[in-house]
């Protein structure tokens, strides 16, 4: 068989995948360099002020990215309030009375709307804000890819089903992270984020009633 049909197919696939990538809006660093050149500076500035006002904002903002991205991707669905026909994620089991600092994201959005109206997505704001919270706390700094679109819907049910309970055991956390292509090493490193911020006693106290088994003392010689 002549290789022509195969080549044609390959060419078609190539065209298809590039159009899909363009349609899906391939994420990239510097996405707002032309449309909103100060975007990243503005985000950093608002996060810095929020942390000066209340240091815990760093932890709470960082956590928002985790809770947004794990439920149907980084699409800011987390920020949507309930409507008469949609139960959003704010009141899901893991989020109700627990997630906070939504107003910090609102402040960033407000500043960005002043500088470049209707340009920077809330989904990108959450990702930039979490990065800045970490780096301004003295942690690592990383470049973020941008160009996300905001979701128009949210799902309390998906949040309830996906977000791990504080009672989750190691193997279920490993399986969950694996679904996002995150390794055990990633799980451990990301769990290190709990070295800042606060948790309610209610969330963790059941772990303290596990009996601690001591090794019997060695008979001394
Ligand atoms: C691995 C599975 C995880 C579980 C089971 C878990 C569970 C929890 C729980 C129970 C709390 C306390 C909530 C409360 O009492 O209101 C908490 C707080 C927090 N979590 Fe996680 N978490 C996980 C992963 C992560 C990840 C991946 C991040 C970020 C990279 C993160 C960031 C935080 C932060 C910063 C806080 C404190 C927030 C604040 O002070 O407002 N967690 N987490
Ligand atoms: C971990 O939790 C899952 C889900 O609750 C359960 O099915 C599994 O048996 C548990 N594994 C261990 C090792 O306890
Ligand atoms: C994980 O990696 C596989 C193989 O590269 C890919 O097909 C899948 O979409 C990835 N999943 C996520 C959630 O990124």
UniProtKB/TrEMBL annotation:
Question: Any idea which positions bind heme b?
Answer: 194
Does the record's keyword annotation contain Metal-binding?
Answer: yes
Show the InterPro entries listed in the entry.
Haem_peroxidase, Haem_peroxidase_sf, Peroxidase_pln, Peroxidases_AS, Peroxidases_heam-ligand_BS, Secretory_peroxidase
Q: Where are the transmembrane segments?
A: none
**Where does the chain bind Ca(2+)?**
68, 71, 73, 75, 77, 89
Q: Which residues bind substrate?
A: 164
PANTHER family in alphabetical order? PEROXIDASE 17, PEROXIDASE 72-RELATED
* Protein name from the UniProt record: peroxidase
The upper taxonomy is: Eukaryota, Viridiplantae, Streptophyta, Embryophyta, Tracheophyta
